[in-house]
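Whiteboard transcription, Tuesday session. T.W. wrote the structure tokens on the left side:
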């Protein structure tokens, strides 16, 4: 390390080694032997948390379908909508969408808890803004606007006419004779499809903590993805007036709780927030859209804005920060530490240390904000996050921390016990104390990194009847993350061996474009089917594994969470990805398409 950098360390005002030790201690006390198995599969008494739809009339049924389509898209959230839109633009029109919910929206159809809001700037997050000529109302849209935008896409692209709602896919089976997929559903369908696009996103199945006694609770309970407004009163904007005489427990303090806790705390007689690991909570700074600014936007503005954001949050050089928010703040700080003209003279090791210093500074700011806002010292100490900024998804909210100054809101820190101990008939036991409550709200997120089969909840059988999950038992084997040998004409939009981005919709969009290209080319070249060659697939898997070294070390040092699969970093959300970043990955795909030779894909007659 350079003498100049050593000298800079002495001016920091904090000791990096002390912080590293504190981070390690906080991580170790939260590590559990059961890792991701600490969460329940949604079955039995809790099956309704995943399967019930509070927004439609129960008992829906229709006549089974046995027809054939060129493409069937499974999922009607943003990834499915984007797949349909990009297929439409590519000239692929014989498409059907199968969606479990009663309308489009995916996560934003189910997640209608009070205060639900995107944490990525709306102008980057909401897809197809230019195509539809729509500008969001605020810098960070709330769920009502996001859900309505999903429906807008459905209307403008004519997708309502090709979608079967309230339809859960049970199995997808390859028929060797007809070279078609047979799709079975809860509506007794047996739909034939030449191509299948799995577009289930990352937040599909709610998860529950596997707490002893969880089935014994005699009060009311629900998951935040199935918010019960009949019990709480109000709507996504708040006014939960029916909680006025209720004692409420909220278990979980991730991105969802950050948004809904202020509304519950404002209205409930008593609110207990059970926290194992605090979130990093920065200022939101939401504001209405300046429509005079919107008039100045040039064609291509949304893609340029997305790429600018992605460049900054992956540490690439940038001339201007177009988004300028909490996500980009840490990297603006890094740019100050490492001036662009001097970056070439710095070794990767020193760059990594300087990035860590910038991270320490940012997290010190986050912790200092807790002290500034929260009046009770003990509560403030428990709310401070002791880990690197991107060990968990950062959150942004202006009301969460002040909520703990209310006399009816109590934070229950369960970090030493590695979580809540158990549930009883009357309430929640934590740190040896029983908290009697009328209602338990599980704000425990989705099964983002659970076992792949459990997460999808669909049987998928390819050539020779081989299960996809047996095929992947030793790890993903794909080309570019979208397709795998032995499963012809099958594509997956998601986070398997491709580039991960905090702006999921931008990531899904480019994946949808690429898949639409492959399907269209397969049709035009009059092939029956397409799948990766073994050689290309092996090369891609080797490449993905080769770029994981630095990322794995970072994740191993993180506190447990879904990014590192509760401490099992190799299988976490950020494990097994194309670490050069989303812009580099999209450029790689664009170059592949421009060559036009379908290299690495086997076209089957």
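and on the right, the sequence the group agreed on:
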């Amino acid at each position: 390390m350079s003498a100049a950098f050593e000298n800079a360390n002495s001016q920091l005002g904090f000791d990096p080694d002390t912080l590293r030790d504190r981070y390690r201690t906080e991580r170790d006390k939260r590590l559990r032997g059961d890792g991701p198995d600490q969460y329940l599969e949604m079955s039995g008494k809790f099956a309704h948390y995943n399967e019930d739809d509070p927004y439609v009339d129960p008992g829906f049924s229709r006549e089974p379908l046995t027809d054939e389509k060129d493409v069937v898209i499974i999922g009607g959230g943003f990834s499915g909508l984007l797949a349909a839109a990009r297929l439409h633009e590519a000239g692929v029109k014989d498409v059907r969408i199968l969606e479990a919910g009663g309308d489009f929206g995916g996560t934003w159809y189910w997640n209608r808890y009070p205060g639900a809001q995107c944490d990525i700037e709306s102008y980057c997050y909401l897809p197809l803004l230019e195509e539809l000529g729509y500008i969001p109302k605020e810098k960070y849209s709330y769920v009502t606007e996001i859900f309505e935008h999903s429906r807008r896409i459905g209307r403008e692209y004519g997708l309502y006419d090709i979608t079967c709602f309230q339809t859960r896919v049970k199995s997808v089976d390859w028929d060797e004779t007809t070279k078609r997929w047979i799709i079975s559903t809860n509506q007794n369908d047996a739909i034939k499809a030449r191509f299948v696009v799995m577009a289930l996103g990352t937040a599909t199945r709610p998860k529950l903590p596997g707490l002893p006694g969880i089935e014994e609770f005699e009060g009311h309970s629900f998951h935040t993805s199935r918010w019960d407004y009949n019990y709480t009163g109000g709507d996504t904007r708040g006014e939960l007036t029916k909680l006025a005489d209720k004692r409420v427990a909220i278990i979980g303090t991730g991105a969802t709780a950050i948004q809904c806790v202020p509304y519950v705390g404002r209205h409930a007689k008593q609110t207990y927030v059970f926290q194992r690991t605090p979130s990093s909570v920065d200022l939101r700074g939401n504001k209405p859209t300046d429509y005079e600014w919107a008039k100045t936007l040039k064609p291509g503005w949304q893609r340029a804005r997305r790429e600018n954001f992605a460049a900054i949050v992956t540490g690439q050089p940038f001339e201007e920060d177009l988004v300028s928010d909490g996500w980009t703040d840490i990297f603006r700080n890094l740019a100050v530490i490492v001036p662009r003209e001097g970056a070439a003279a710095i070794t990767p090791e020193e760059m990594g240390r300087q990035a860590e210093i910038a991270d320490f500074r940012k997290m010190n700011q986050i912790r200092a904000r807790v002290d500034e806002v929260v009046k009770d010292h003990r509560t403030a100490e428990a709310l401070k996050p002791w880990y690197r900024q991107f060990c968990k998804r950062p959150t942004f909210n202006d009301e969460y921390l002040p909520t703990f100054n209310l006399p009816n809101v109590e934070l229950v820190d369960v970090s030493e016990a590695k979580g809540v101990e158990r549930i009883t008939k009357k309430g929640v036991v934590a740190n040896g104390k029983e908290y009697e409550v009328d209602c338990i709200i599980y704000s425990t997120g989705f099964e983002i990194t659970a076992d792949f089969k459990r997460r999808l909840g669909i049987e998928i059988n390819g050539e020779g009847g081989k299960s996809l999950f047996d095929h992947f038992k030793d790890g993903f084997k794909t080309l570019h993350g979208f397709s795998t040998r032995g499963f012809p004409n099958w594509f997956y939009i998601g986070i398997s061996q491709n580039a991960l981005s905090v702006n999921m919709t931008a990531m899904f969009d480019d994946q949808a474009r690429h898949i639409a290209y492959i399907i269209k080319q397969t049709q035009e070249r009059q092939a029956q089917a397409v799948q990766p060659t073994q050689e290309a697939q092996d090369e891609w898997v080797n490449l993905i594994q080769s770029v994981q070294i630095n990322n794995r070390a970072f994740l191993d040092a993180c506190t447990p969470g879904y990014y590192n699969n509760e401490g099992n970093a190799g299988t976490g959300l950020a494990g097994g990805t194309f670490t050069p970043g989303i812009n580099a990955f999209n450029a790689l795909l664009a170059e592949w398409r421009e060559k036009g030779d379908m290299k690495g894909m086997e076209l089957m007659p």
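Someone added at the bottom: The two ends are 59 Å apart (CA to CA).
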